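haha ok so turns out i had the wrong file open the whole time. this is the CORRECT one, sorry everyone. sequence first:
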Amino acid sequence: MEKEEQAMYMGIDVSKGYADFFLMDSRKNIVDQGFQLDDNVDGHQGLLMYLRKRSSAGVKIICGVESTGGYEQNWLTVLKKQKGQLPVEVYKVNPKGVKHQIESTLKRTITDSISAEGIAQYLANNYAQKRQDWHNSTFADDQVVAAQHCFRLIQGLIKQQTSRYNQLEKMLYQCFPELLTFCKYGIPQWMIRLLIRYPGRTPIRRAQITSIDGIKGISKAKAERIKALANTSVGTWSSPVQGRMVQILAEDIQHHQARIDGLKTFLTQTYTSADFEILKSIKGIGDWTSTALLMLIGSIDRFEGTDQIASFFGVNPKFKQSGDGKWGVHMSKQGSAAMRSILYIAATNVVMHDPYFKKLYHNYTSKGIKKKSVHGIIMHKLLRIIYGMLKSHTMFNYRIDETNQKETKNQSEKQISCTSRRYQKLNTEAPISRSNYKKRRAVLECQISESDISTASSSTTLLQK
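then structure:
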């Protein structure tokens, strides 16, 4: 990096149709008061003229744009094109880091100009440490970025579909509540087809058994049961208008589901990666899940280790620790919620289909840990395993994870870091708590046994000589 005096930091707070700018030097002195430009040709040209003027003396300008869900893309593109023409760097930064930066200044009122200043301060404080992370996020592969946008579209359609299912369930409760006995795990597709043809208990009462069991997914026994439930239903809705509402909603759900499935298939076929087969070597992970995981992870090289990738996607354990106490242990849930939703589905599937993950699940539940917590543990472990597989380009091998578990267990058994005690020899003479005494005693006993083994080994060597 160049000398600090030769760098300036520009914060860009993007809004719909315009952006606010704030420029400060490396010593965090204000170079120029905040100003505003529109997101059009004139605004872009004005920004480039301003940057040329400020960088004419050989000063590098480091720009930061906060992620806003797409509104920042035009400004990013304009600044990226200046690479090699102007001494300008541009990075997309995490809004959460900027938020904490602004909160640390104890500002009472937050405006667009103050937000731009907060971005500039965040850049100045973290440039040396975070530069590579920002670079990886800003300059991702175009194929990955396009696939991620398509994935977000699919996620949005799924949310809309969930809303439709909830609305249909409420309607069924009014017109034919007994039908919901078949919906323990959501409304099945055969019921959607049934409601399109016979929307409500009255049409079902009039229908023939042979017509009902002709619908895909409905057997003769199920058709007879549905018919019997319709004849004794306690539902209150029975008018043709209400039946038409059910029918339209069922048709909409069927059409919407076809669009979602079609987009998933298209994305799976379009987004190509050599790592597909690596992820699919875990039983329970199929084409769509592996596609989604690879898209959201992007380049595996942007993560330095398993702890970083787990923290980035918010599946790492979060807790508070003070003295001998540790409490509030739960999943951090920071970062991409979309990744956690895919990991939740993947964890459910691998527990069902892969013997190793099934064994892990039962081991944790047998210890009295709640199933919901165990599911989070499996999500965390699955992501760490996926990281190792992608990093080493190897298929899934449960023995590698078992070896890693043993090494981690041996390290955690020490409980007290030797590094933290480097300025004072560990002993049990301090006025410490009972639990801390036990930890120290265990470490000291372990050190004594290791010393005995080393002494015995040395004696054997001398005797052999």
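Residues 1-5, 459-463 have pLDDT under 50 and may be disordered.
again sry for the mixup
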